[in-house]
Amino acid sequence: MSQPSKTTIRIDLDNGVRLGPGKAQLLELIAEHGSIRAAGASIGMSYRRAWLLGDEINRMFKEPAIFTRHGGKSGGGAGLTEFGQELLSRYRRMEKASRDAMRADLDWLESNADPRFETTGKSDDA
Fold first, then answer.
1. Domains of the chain
2. 20-63, pLDDT tens digit by residue?
3. Which of 41, 70, 73, 114 shows its CA 20 to 30 Å from the CA of 47?
4. 58-76 CB burial, b ≥16 within 10 A, e <16
5. Has residue 116 got a pLDDT over 60?
């Protein structure tokens, strides 16, 4: 059985802030794993790339979305601040609202899609 159609959204604010599915997923995984390294590794992302994305997310807004704890006897770690939890929640809510608003059109597209179609993997045209 195929997966249901989905939409993704990317928010582009006037100040240049860009928040999309990749950053939202990273926030979700940091909350789940309690570690930037583990969050990145779970999606095949290097620690450096995950750390840089997390740093960018923290600089995008007036408040940080991610907190870190330095290592020691109890070990280090990371998680979402209250603001980060709210940011992720609002992004997921906007994502759902857009999907719900487009449901009838997505269903129509799905019903008219050729089931024999195979992607070449070369097109990123959206």
1. 17-107 (1.10.10.10)
2. 999 999 999 999 999 999 999 999 999 999 999 999 999 999 99
3. 73
4. bebeeebbbebeeeeeeee
5. yes
Contact 34, 26 (CB under 8 A): no
Task: State residue 76's pLDDT score.
Answer: 81
The predicted pLDDT at position 70 comes to 85
pTM: 0.82
Q: Which residue has the tokens 């995950």?
A: 50
